[in-house]
């Protein structure tokens, strides 16, 4: 009774956290941007193929007109995707947050973007041909539009949308158009005054912060929050806590990955952006090793719990009809990192037999992969990898086509299979007794 009460309370609290509208808006916003992230990562991967840097081969390839254009086009595509990811994030997060309030989602997205741009520093110093440094207005440094601006983007999207939605509910601030006016026009005028107030309010706040702190809000937050957060998250402790909690939530029937999606996606984009810049500059240190793409490639193979290892264990060591059938049904989905057939078919949820290996296997895989990264054996991930990418391929993409990626994946798969096999045998004994009893009852 006591255990059931604890489980119910734990599930209720975790469920409320997972359904919190602001966390949900951040999560859904980043998920909606996944196609742009993948395209940006793909062109980055192509432009950094392992053909050597500053080598004769690369110089010869650069002389081929077609290949030179490919590099230019890929750079332009990166600029239009990853280079502008903060702008897209502001719009997407604001859209989903306003939608959760049943407000004007499109207007909220546009207003939040305008508020964000009003906060972006527009002064820059330009060096002339004569070597003179002059100040220029109307220049936006790309570090305010790429992943470095994400933290500010998330904050402005959430605050701006909250202000806009609340003002939009006031009849005194709504300009009502006569009947017969097209709905799109009516919605635009309805959003006019709330939008103006929101943009001015955000701009006022950022200017006041700049006057007090003697620094713009972007550089202030990046230096004092984003960088320490990124550095603090790239540790053994942070990684182990994320992996542990993700799988403990799953054991209780709560989508563990969704609980941390917003935070991990933000950190992931910052990590990928940092690693890409270092890779292109030829740097050998300063890389960020822990990221969501790192987890997807080297820990969550077959989905949470390294479920492809469980599937292999079921097919290799399983003897009961039930367990082998679940293994066969889960094989193809697990290749693409979809594990719901296993989690709910075996099941994993609230199953004391499989709860231990389901949590232990990914922890061991994290220790191996992260340790290999820290020792310089496994390169830092510099691309956003689609979570459905099958193992081996994801290892190749994650390491810029270095064979060590798939090797680490194979090692982790072997570890997961060895962890699961004893528990598969225990589950087999129980299941085979049930099958024998059912057979006797049927006779």
UniProtKB/TrEMBL annotation:
Topological type in the membrane: Multi-pass membrane protein
Chief localization: membrane
Alphabetized Pfam families for the sequence: PTS_EIIC
PROSITE patterns in UniProt: PTS_EIIC_TYPE_3
Subcellular location: Cell membrane
Ranges where the PTS EIIC type-3 domain occurs: 6-423
Keywords: Cell membrane, Membrane, Sugar transport, Transmembrane, Transmembrane helix, Transport
Spans through the membrane: 30-51, 77-98, 105-127, 147-168, 189-213, 233-252, 297-317, 342-370, 377-397, 403-424
This protein's record includes keyword Transmembrane helix: yes
Keyword Magnesium included in the entry's annotation: no
NCBIfam families in the cross-refs: lacE
Its biological purpose: The phosphoenolpyruvate-dependent sugar phosphotransferase system (PTS), a major carbohydrate active -transport system, catalyzes the phosphorylation of incoming sugar substrates concomitant with their translocation across the cell membrane.
The protein's name in its UniProt record: Permease IIC component
Species of origin: Ohessyouella blattaphilus
């Amino acid at each position: 009774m006591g255990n059931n009460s604890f489980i119910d309370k734990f599930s209720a609290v975790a469920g409320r956290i997972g359904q919190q509208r602001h966390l949900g808006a951040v999560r859904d916003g980043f998920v909606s941007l996944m196609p742009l992230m993948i395209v940006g990562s793909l062109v980055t991967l192509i432009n950094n193929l392992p053909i050597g840097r500053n080598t004769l081969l690369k110089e010869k390839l650069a002389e081929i007109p077609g290949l030179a254009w490919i590099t230019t086009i890929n750079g332009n595509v990166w600029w239009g995707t990853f280079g502008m990811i903060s702008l897209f994030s502001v719009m997407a997060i604001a859209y989903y947050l306003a939608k959760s309030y049943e407000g004007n989602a499109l207007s909220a997205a546009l207003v939040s973007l305008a508020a964000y741009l009003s906060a972006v520093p527009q002064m820059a110093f330009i060096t002339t041909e004569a070597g003179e440094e002059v100040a220029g207005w109307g220049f936006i440094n790309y570090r305010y539009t790429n992943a470095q601006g994400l933290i500010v983007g998330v904050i402005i999207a959430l605050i701006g949308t909250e202000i806009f939605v609340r003002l939009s509910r006031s009849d005194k601030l709504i300009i009502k158009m006569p009947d017969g006016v097209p709905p799109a026009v009516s919605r635009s005028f309805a959003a006019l005054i709330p939008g103006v107030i929101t943009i001015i309010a955000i701009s006022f706040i950022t200017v006041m912060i700049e006057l007090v702190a003697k620094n713009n809000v972007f550089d202030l937050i990046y230096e004092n929050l984003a960088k320490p957060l990124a550095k603090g998250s790239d540790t053994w402790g942070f990684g182990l806590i994320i992996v542990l909690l993700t799988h403990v939530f799953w054991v209780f029937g709560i989508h563990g990955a969704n609980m941390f999606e917003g935070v991990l996606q933000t950190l992931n984009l910052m990590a990928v952006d940092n690693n890409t810049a270092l890779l292109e500059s030829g740097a050998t240190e300063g890389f960020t090793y822990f990221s969501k793409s790192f987890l997807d490639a080297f820990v969550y193979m077959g989905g949470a719990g390294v479920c492809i290892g469980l599937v292999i264990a079921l097919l290799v060591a399983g003897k009961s009809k039930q367990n082998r059938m679940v293994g066969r049904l889960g094989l193809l989905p697990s290749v693409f990192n979809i594990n719901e057939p296993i989690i709910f078919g075996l099941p994993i949820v609230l199953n004391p037999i499989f709860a231990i290996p389901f949590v232990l296997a990914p922890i061991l895989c994290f220790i191996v992969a992260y340790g290999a990264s820290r020792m310089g054996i496994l390169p830092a991930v510099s691309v956003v990898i689609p979570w459905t990418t099958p193992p081996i391929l994801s290892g190749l993409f994650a390491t810029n086509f270095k064979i060590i990626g798939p090797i680490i994946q194979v090692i982790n798969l072997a570890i997961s299979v060895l962890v699961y096999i004893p528990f598969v045998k225990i589950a087999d004994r129980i299941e085979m007794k049930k099958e024998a009893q059912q057979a006797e009852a049927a006779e």
